[in-house]
């Protein structure tokens, strides 16, 4: 999809003013963090596993070339093929070529964020191939021609009434009077509609949560079973994944798997974790005749060795989205591209450019919850700060903003002046707001007072109280 | 330059080095070959084998799987018939054509219609063996092969899995070793597909309310056979 991350402020305002979105987000805000907390509390080793997972990913990234080559050798040894893709366009073309080589008309798809990243569906459609999303959430948003708003729950921005309306529109051959009031009925309808597609598809495309170097396997982690039907029934299975998903061994994968579902949905383990290695074997009764992996770089190799390398540890669990006050307020679409929330605020500028996505690392309160729940301990706030520094240094932010920040920095670098000005400013505000205790509006602060009151300062400043306490301690 | 070479070159350039030095490569190769285990939670690993069976059953039941224990293979047909009747399901089964199920005396229940092979679109119920069952999270480990088609795990509305009590292991790592052992000894090599299955199919994609049976099986029923010492009532080691 074309990024609209440069519109973040407008997108966010739209999200805040959308009552349906706010209801839907309200349900997400409490559900995911609560379930994660329950799962973490049941596993005393959770913290230690996070440290090990971080080490495993760091080790792999430090030797990424070695593990990629080992992975490739083992895919080939198992009868599969690897297609390296430097760019999204290369990946799209590789997939199209495979589809064309077998005369594919319809392809089924399991949920894949990398497929979203390369905008695969539009490309296939423009080239005469019909992609059918089979994950329930992805199917819903495909029918609505919307991008996903969450990396594991793509339709989290919708209420069931909207889904019902979408299904009534798309499934016109069914009885218009059928009841679709309950989520159960909607799931049943999607199951019934999609089953024939699974059976008829020529090619099945899935993502890959992990690529195991030791065995040349790709792994998908799902709950619905759609990914398994997608990759088992058609003649050809294509895996679209990216280079940082490689893991040395199954033992290393087990450690990451112990963290993934708990961090994501709060499940002990997802319903289906599937390890796929090559095509159907001679004695097999089912499974694809061809197995292809499209291995995407798309800028990731550039992140190695630099201040954003840690981002490549990401398991795409969504814990950072689920615990982010900004995501919970504005929803995923506001971020304007494929990856929302804190992980998106770090990854999107790297993949589509800071020029397009400079707002995203600014859309953070730096509360730090994202880092505290990340299963591989990615320092997300620190990296958002790196992006802000780069944005400032490359003069991408508006001039007024930059000169304001420059003036503040000039004052802040002179503690004596800063304290004096802060003292005077604080007293003046305190005096002016004495009667009401708060301000409904303030010059130069409309961004704040437009949506909430500014409390009037009371009493003495922190600095003067601190200085006094230090003096007392020194005397004691 | 091929895309492959360009990507590997970029990776090395970003890491500030050339190809991995020979000594490092040897150490990495060693790391992979030894299958070194990382931290394994005590939950299952610290338990004696009999208690692992109980933990497996508890964890499986937590995720809406039903579990019944029987003494031996001879009891499987009666248990399957009971389950199908209780769930009001047709008495028709697609059964994995696997040697490990050869001793199940289906003839004792002539009303059960048995077809051996992969799943067909209309199949309502499947019955499969498994390679292992992981106590830590109540997870089944199934591998594809000449006796175990993968479609049996996903197409039918109901899946019944036969687990020998002796197949219940503590963690996933024990399962990996069993796959490696099978790959080395069975002549079928590394399986095309390994399915780790923890409960029936589900989705929370609409308002985060969990619905069972999104695309895969709506019901998962496990029959645990025998005890952990490999004894079953008919005297044969159950995981032979």
Describe this structure in words.
The complex is a heterodimer of chains A (476) and B (240). By secondary structure, chain A is an alpha/beta fold. Chain A has 23 helices and 12 strands. In chain A, the strands form 3 sheets. In chain A, strands 1-10-7-4-2-3 form a 6-stranded parallel beta sheet, with helices on both faces. Chain A has a 4-stranded mixed beta sheet with strand order 8-5-6-9, sandwiched between helices. The mean pLDDT of chain A is 95. Chain B is an alpha/beta fold and 240 residues long. Chain B folds into 2 domains: 34 residues, no CATH class; 183 residues, NagB/RpiA/CoA transferase-like (Rossmann fold), CATH 3.40.50. Chain B is 28% helix and 21% strand. Chain B is built from 6 helices and 12 strands. In chain B, a hairpin with a 4-residue loop joins strand 5 and strand 6. The C terminus of chain B is likely disordered. At the A-B interface, helix 2, helix 3, helix 4, strand 1 and helix 8 of A face helix 1, helix 2, helix 6, strand 9 and strand 10 of B.
- Strands side by side in the biggest sheet of chain A: 1-10-7-4-2-3
Distance between the termini of chain A: 65 Å
Largest sheet of chain A: 6 strands, parallel
* Rounded average pLDDT of chain B: 94
Report the portion of residues of chain A in β strands: 5-15%
CATH topology of the largest domain in chain B: Rossmann fold
State the helicity of chain A in percent bands: 40-55%
Helix content of chain B: 25-40%
Overall shape of chain A:
globular
